[in-house]
């Protein structure tokens, strides 16, 4: 009888711990992803990814989570159609062959209740490599219009684009380092 009570208690604790993980859906109207690269050491070229979707599983009490976000590369937008066409071509993203970029991160680090980094893997052009996003802001709040909790923040990282086979312009002096900046908000489901 005592063993049955202990087992039931352990199962109840496990269920309670699991119940703390919530799923959040990326809000595309409050999520923006951009990249920046130096152009001949003189100015910074920028573009954004207009089409994105994903989810976040987040357990604040357990200090864990998982983010799974995809970018439809047909939505690349630099504000200049000719540059967008070049970025979509084989010199850069080869969108016809690789239409999606995906980040999956499941290693969250915290400072108190605030997420400070999310580490995971970035898949681009058929190659996957580790990436760590640093949180420059993180917060959860009760959205008064949606009547639901929203969590999000500003995240950034610098990658070496050659890891994914994007080496166009290196011989001209273009940087291989690319800064990625993501502002994200996700709505609790």
Automatic annotation (TrEMBL):
Query: What Pfam family is a match, any one?
Result: YceI
Q: Which residues form the signal peptide?
A: 1-19
Indicate the segments forming the Lipid/polyisoprenoid-binding YceI-like domain, all copies: 23-187
* Listed Gene3D superfamilies: Lipid/polyisoprenoid-binding, YceI-like (2.40.128.110)
Q: Which SMART domains does this chain map to?
A: YceI
Ordered alphabetically, the record's keywords are: Signal
Specify the domain of life of the species encoding this protein: Bacteria
Alphabetical list of PANTHER family matching this protein = PERIPLASMIC PROTEIN, PROTEIN YCEI
Record-given protein name: Polyisoprenoid-binding protein YceI
């Amino acid at each position: 009888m005592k063993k049955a009570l202990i087992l039931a208690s352990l199962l109840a604790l496990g269920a309670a711990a699991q119940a703390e993980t919530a799923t959040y859906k990326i809000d595309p109207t409050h999520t923006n992803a951009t990249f920046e690269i130096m152009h001949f050491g003189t100015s910074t070229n920028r573009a954004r990814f207009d089409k994105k979707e994903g989810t976040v599983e987040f357990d604040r009490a357990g200090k864990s989570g998982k983010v799974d976000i995809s970018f439809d590369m047909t939505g690349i937008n630099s504000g200049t159609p000719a540059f967008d066409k070049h970025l979509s071509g084989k010199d850069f993203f080869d969108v016809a062959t690789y239409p999606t970029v995906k980040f999956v991160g499941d290693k969250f680090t915290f400072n108190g209740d605030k997420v400070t980094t999310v580490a995971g893997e970035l898949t681009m052009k058929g190659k996957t490599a580790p990436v760590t996003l640093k949180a420059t802001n993180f917060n959860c709040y009760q959205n008064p219009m949606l009547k639901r909790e929203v969590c999000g923040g500003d995240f950034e990282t610098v990658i070496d684009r050659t890891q994914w086979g994007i080496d166009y312009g290196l011989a001209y002096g273009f940087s291989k380092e690319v800064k990625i900046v993501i502002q994200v908000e996700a709505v609790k489901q």
